[in-house]
Amino acid sequence: MSLLDDVAERDGWRCWVCDEPVDPDMSVNDSRGPSVDSRTADRKAKVVERLAHRGCNSRKGAVQVVVAWPESLYVVEPAPLIAVAERLERKGGREMVGRCPTRKDAQEAADWLVDRFSRLVPGLPVTTAVEAGGGQFLVLVAVGRR
To answer: How far is the C-alpha of 15 from the C-alpha of 116, rounded, in Å?
Structure first.
């Protein structure tokens, strides 16, 4: 297996930037084709590879990437996920990433976050929690042990 196949299988053939499916049969020269994005993860110069569409990978060099929350989730004041991921990767700990009106909404957001972080920061052992507070439900993301 190639590096592309290994990374794509681990990431479930989903682009870490846009979270859309990547077609394994598409040409790597096509903007919707698969590519591997590499980045330095920490001060120890650990390199992390993530699957991206060729176009998403190229575009991120010209503009700052924003990982969008799905419109189907009801989250108030959602946190910018790339900044959260970078802080958690650097310092560990936990962060509140949004508020939801119901426990069900919060749990849906928490479940989505675990899946999304698996592609955003592969190998970072992320867990989520939902806590009641102030008449709403807080969604928390933490670095845990795997």
So the answer is: 10
